[in-house]
Fold this protein.
Amino acid sequence: MMLNLVSQNWAEFFIGGKDGIFKIASSTSGIDKNKLDLSKDENLSRIPYITRTELQNGISFFIANQENTKYKIDENKVITIGLDTQTIFFQPHKFYTGQNIQVLRHTKLNKFTAHFIISLLKVQMAKFNWGGNGAT
């Protein structure tokens, strides 16, 4: 069943902050690539490592679980924003990140609402792209 967008009540909303609909924070992991534990069996490398790349949903490569280190895995069903590069993606799986990744969280976020919000964010962020500093 297709949702009729014309008959919906539309209103302005804040993305983050006190009145925002999302909790926005740095990623839980934020692992510098040089500090990754890559010594584990390659067959265990199934967790996405998200960076500021604009390719492959922000995934640079897959890594093994890093939880024996001080880094915690980030939960799935969130939107990631790569600072400096303004890359914005929905993450359907648990993941680790590189540095300078912000995460937007909402308990009711799913891939459909996320892609709708992402398209709005990209339009807004394009207005603020000065001097190569992106979203920072």
About this structure: The chain has one domain: 23-128.
